[in-house]
Design goal:
Largest sheet: 4 strands, antiparallel
Oligomer: single chain
Helix content: 10-25%
Number of helices: 3
Strand order of the largest sheet: 1-2-3-4
Structural class: alpha+beta
Length: about 150
């Protein structure tokens, strides 16, 4: 399994066409998963989506491939790991962090972008435990929040 310790992500940079194409190929599943994630967290811990609490589901998911602002990419024996920062156009300074996995299509070695298929691995949700024991939850990040390795 690929982990932060076994896979070296490159530095954050503007997405190249291959990353935009990968994101575009899973765009609808990202939108569906984001709405599902929001509804699930709103039942138990609404703080995750507090930054967009007054935004409709359709506005929350109004992003397109052109809203992918930054990516970090790494290769492993398993395939391509693409982390992306996606702007939520309906809200100032609101972003989601996504993780995409690309693997070789059947009967190919996956060495070129058209030989890969992509799937959403996860949308980042964060729980931080402060020194006083308080928990802080979020799924919406700001422009200045670093795009780091995550599993959830």
């Amino acid at each position: 399994m690929a982990t932060e310790d076994t896979v070296q992500l490159n530095e954050a940079h503007a997405p190249q066409q291959a990353s935009l194409d990968a994101f575009d190929s899973i765009l609808e599943s990202v939108k569906q998963e984001l709405i599902k994630l929001r509804h699930s967290h709103d039942k138990h811990e609404p703080e995750y989506f507090r930054a967009v609490k007054d935004v409709s589901d359709s506005d929350l998911a109004s992003f397109s491939a052109s809203d992918l602002e930054s990516v970090r990419v790494a290769n492993s024996a398993y395939g391509l790991h693409l982390f992306g920062k996606v702007k939520i156009p309906a809200v100032d300074n609101a972003y989601i962090h996504i993780r995409i996995f690309g693997s070789a299509k059947e009967n190919t070695d996956g060495s070129s972008p058209d030989e890969r298929e992509y799937k959403l691995h996860s949308i980042h949700t964060e729980e931080v435990v402060k020194d006083d024991g308080d928990h802080v939850f979020r799924a919406i990040f700001g422009k200045n929040d670093a795009l780091e390795w995550f599993d959830t």
